Amino acid sequence: MTTVQKIKTDIQALPHEDYMSLLSWIHERDWEEWDKLLENDIALGKLDFLVHEAMEEKKAGKLVDL
Fold first, then answer.
1. What separation in angstroms does the CA of 6 have from each of 1, 3, 11, 24, 28?
2. What DSSP string runs through 9-29?
3. Is there a contact between 54 and 63 (Cβ–Cβ < 8 Å)?
4. Nearest 5°: CA angle at 29, between 16 and 41?
5. Any residues with CB less than 8 A from the CB of 41 and at least 6 apart, and which?
6. In terms of pTM, does the model score above 0.70?
7. What is the secondary structure of 31-60 as a DSSP string?
8. Distance between first and last Cα of the chain
9. CA-based Rg of the chain, rounded to a whole angstrom?
10. What pLDDT is stored for residue 65 in this prediction?
11. Whose CA is closest to 10, among 42, 1, 40, 58?
């Protein structure tokens, strides 16, 4: 049995409360990883095109207040 298979089996055996706690932890960790990736992409300039698009839309009067 691989490590992942063992973990899956162990998760299936968890009481509901423990499962929900684990799920919450995994969800939070996933968001933290996503934030790190986003921050890295920003630092590398990968999202600069969005700023330029927004500036062009503003110049063209196409932005709408939310």
1. 6, 5, 9, 20, 22
2. HHHHTS-HHHHHHHHHHHHHH
3. yes
4. 155
5. 47
6. no
7. HHHHHHHHHHHHHTTTTHHHHHHHHHHHHT
8. 53
9. 21
10. 82
11. 1
> If you average pLDDT over residues 9-21, what whole number do you get?
98
Query: 3-class SS at 64?
Result: coil
pLDDT number for residue 64: 83
Phi-psi region of 45 (alpha: psi -120 to 50; beta: other; left: phi over 0): left
Query: pLDDT tens for residues 17-64?
Result: 999 999 999 999 999 999 999 999 999 999 999 999 999 999 999 988
29 class by beta-carbon count within 10 Å (0-12 exposed, 13-18 middle, 19+ buried): exposed
